[in-house]
Amino acid sequence: MATRHSRGIARIMITPAVIVLLGWMLVPLVMTLWFSFHDYRPQRGIYECCVGFENYARFLGSSSFLKAVFTTLIMLGGSLGITVIGGIFLAILLNQPIWGQGIVRVLVIAPFFVMPTVSALVWKNMMMDPVNGILAHVWAAFGAEPVSWLTDVPLFSIIMIVSWQWLPFATLILLTAIQSLDSEQLEAAEMDGAGPVPRFVSIILPHLARAITVVILIETIFLLSIFAEIFVTTQGGLGTKTLTYLIYERVMESQNVGLGSAGGILAVILANIIAIFLMRIVGKNLDR
Amino acid sequence: MARAISTRSKITFTAVAWLIGLLIFFPILWTMLTSFKTEAQAIADPPVVFGFDWTLENYCTVGFRPNLYFFDFNEFCEGAPRSEYMRFLWNSVAIAVGSTLLGIVIAVPAAWAMAFVPGRRTKDILLWMLSTKMLPAVGVLYPINLIFVEADLLDTHFGLIVVMTLINLPIIVWMLYTYFREIPGEILEAARMDGAGMGQEIFYVLAPMAVPGIASTILLNIILAWNEAFWTLNLTTFDAAPLTQFIAGYSSPEGNFFAKLSAASTAAIAPILVLGWFSQKQLVRGLTFGAVK
């Protein structure tokens, strides 16, 4: 059916999308790469070419880099752990026959549609405020000393906020996956006397394996570039400076563009390593 | 055949599910409630749940003052607003809708061609497009900022619409592609047998089948663009600043501001919460790139 003529037209139809994306990807990336080999500090009027890998060495060698990587990993690991485990639990729960299932699902999904600046500020003030926040009232009701969340346990607080935002995403995807599970298989296992735990471990979990992988990969990509949640709460202080935020500070606040650009290139490489795994899974699915 | 479920276990599951659902929704619910309180009631100890005097004062203060020709919200308000919600709302709408429509115009032909005339490299192109979405934004922040300064695009609708189009284009192409691919190719041959020409084919046969997919794609992308908070925070200050920036303006506490913050937050998320509830299915498709069905 696809004649040479229609192939030609198809190529023309694809071209605009490819060109704009190619430009969007290459132009700024090449600029960042270019700056990363310069000593470029615009506020002091310094723009000197070709310092080799000095920026990379300084970025990688600084103590703030190691700290930022550590912070990023904790934030990533914590949020992934909470959302994936919580998501599996919620997906199984929502897959049970319950009254008002549609409404519960809507309640659970809602946080995903809240813009990052709002969810961060709502949590910071309405929930986590040490005097007027709801958590402070709950703590007081149990006779405990209210916690000053964002100053005492800032990283944990941000993990909570981020997890609240991403739990719906994990739940929704895992629920979609669980719904495609053949219920006869579960029934057969039940008839053979398998309890809930063996049924979960040997039927449900393997069935969800791919969906879980997809959730982890996609969340990783989005969580690595978390910005607004930190921007409106701790501004990167109190040990919440992730790699993204560190680069942002280097580039926009201290205006050391060369150094920040080196960091940017490193972040791109890191993201690409994760992206490759995601691509494999998505690519496999395309063939079917 | 459905499994016989005992009523007792159904009651248990229902109770647990509702409890957790309400717990997760609670921060939003509480914010919505607080937005109708006075500042004094908002910080009352113990907290007031329902027994307070409902007021629209905070909505007035944050500038939520829609003026429709049959109804003017200003009638409830006294004095000047503290911030201009309506401006930011308009900027959000302009950027979200503008970038989505521009993206659709570029993406429909591309997705169409890849779905109906797949070539050897279609798969590679699709995956490459997806990979551009995964570039960390902070890596290209300075160059984009520089280009925006040089081209005088900072804080303009046009600049923001272009950037938002570009960051969401891969998702738009992907979603459309997965929808278009489900349209059976045989239907074209049938139409052709009946003597339909190329134009008629597209207009009468394919377009009606493609419309639902395009509509879903538009819906999801308006939501994504509405909530985007990296480029909007970094590339706007006032003139083209959308609601993400409006809320960031409330990030430093100032006296009693809980009720005002709540009203601002509610007003910023309400439009998209409503849209979001219609888009649950598309969300899975759009954000997993067809990897989970």
Order of strands, main sheet of chain B, comes to 1-2
Strand content of chain B: under 5%
Question: Greatest chain-chain interface?
Answer: A-B, 106 and 101 residues
CATH architecture call of chain A: Orthogonal Bundle
Q: What are the low-pLDDT stretches of chain B, counting only 5+ consecutive residues below 50?
A: none
Specify the overall morphology of chain B: globular
Please mark out the parts of chain A with pLDDT under 50 across 5 or more consecutive residues, or reply none: none
Number of domains of chain B: 2
The CATH topology of the largest domain in chain B is given as MetI-like fold
Structural class of chain A: mainly alpha
Q: So what's the overall shape of chain A?
A: globular
Structural Rg of chain A: 24 Å
CATH superfamily of chain A: MetI-like
CA-based gyration radius of chain B: 24 Å
Helix/strand order of chain B, N-terminal first: HHHEEHHHHHHHHHH
Mean pLDDT of chain B: 86
Largest sheet of chain A: 2 strands, antiparallel
Keywords:
heterodimer; A: MetI-like fold; 13 helices; 2 strands; 2% strand; B: mainly alpha; MetI-like fold; 2 domains; two-stranded antiparallel sheet
Descriptive account of the structure:
The complex is a heterodimer of chains A (288) and B (293). In chain A, α12 crosses α13 (257-286). The mean pLDDT of chain A is 88. Chain A has a two-stranded antiparallel sheet with strand order 1-2. With 288 residues, chain A is mainly alpha-helical. Chain A is 75% helix and 2% strand. Chain A has 13 helices and 2 strands. With 293 residues, chain B is mainly alpha-helical. Chain B folds into 2 domains: 7-76, no CATH class; 85-248, MetI-like (MetI-like fold), CATH 1.10.3720.10. Chain B is built from 13 helices and 2 strands, in the order αααββαααααααααα. In chain B, α1 (7-34) packs across α12 (258-278), α7 (157-181) packs across α9 and α8 (186-193) packs antiparallel against α9. The mean pLDDT of chain B is 86. Chains A and B meet through α1, α3, α4, α5 and α8 of A and α1, α4, α5, α6 and α7 of B.
